[in-house]
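This protein record is not my work; I was only asked to verify it. The record follows directly below this note.
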Amino acid sequence: MLLHSTILRLLSGRLDKLAQNHFFSKNLSEYVAELQALLSKLRADYRDGASSALPPDALQLVVESIWRATQYLAGSTSNRVPYELVFALRNSLIDWGLDDCVVTTSLLQSSEFLCERVHSAPNDPIEQLLETKMKFELVQIALPEIFQHTPLFCTPLYHEIGHYVEERKRLVTGALTSNDQAWLECLPDAAYVNGIDDRTKRRKVALNLITEHFCDTFAASYVGSAACFYIEEWAPDQPANDTHPSTMARIAVIEEFLNEGHGDFINMLQNTALDNAGKPLLIKRFDEPEVEKFYSDSRPCEITSIAQMHGVFPAALKQLKSSIADPAKRRAFPNDDDLILAVNDLTEKSIRNFMIRNAWDEPLDQA
């Protein structure tokens, strides 16, 4: 057990160092403290040969989950982290009753946005193997490092948070199980899915595609038309495959949801999650502020509500596109690159000012 003992010691040291970082919120500090206490107990068990010591295979699962989590915990201590985005994502989780979540981040050297699977966080193996209930759930998101200060290009994170919500609550999985034929009858790209001969694979692919549409619609419920931006720009002609719908179908579903011309498929998506009164949780939750009068004078926008905080993303993106198309609106930014950076910077500052006005002691006070 020499290797395990060494890893436990090194991980304990890493967590001790992370716990000293002032960027952590109160909730995140509590989470790290729980992990510290857990590792201390595991080390003591193996040092003393306690009967409660985990068998090697179980210990490995726990250790690997904590080890992996430290990447995201370390990322959340950096002043490179887009705290404004994390603040916005945290508020979307609250809307779905997930107040027990803390959001951690990591930066990637790739074009990917991702949210780690729910079971990959330490909570799952700790609760199953050690029978210890942790106070908070860890949400682990990652984004391209080059976009760390360009929030308008990071709206795919809303889609990724949608994956966390869907998996945590098993919304699409439950809905497909109870009525799979109805889903297949109205699913965009149904021709692709129905062309799969094997029934088990066909159902799995349908689940994948419906889940992606749910997450796209989840994103659109917070950032409106900005949910289409990255899809249109990065994969404009992507056909349907076993994991994702076609770009055309994704855009069509988002636009149908935003235009409130809800057909059978949107209605079924909305019925995957209802509140206590039987009303859909998947609804528009944004209000676009008037950014032009502020941004045209190089001032942050005055955001007055959580809905406007989400809505500043589509509003700013529309302002950016409009200014690129009409040089008369650029004023001090004749160069496209300078204009893009300026609008992103003003959007970041707009959200930060809103956070400050709402008495947030630290950027991630609750996240």
Notes: Confidence is low (pLDDT under 50) at residues 360-367.
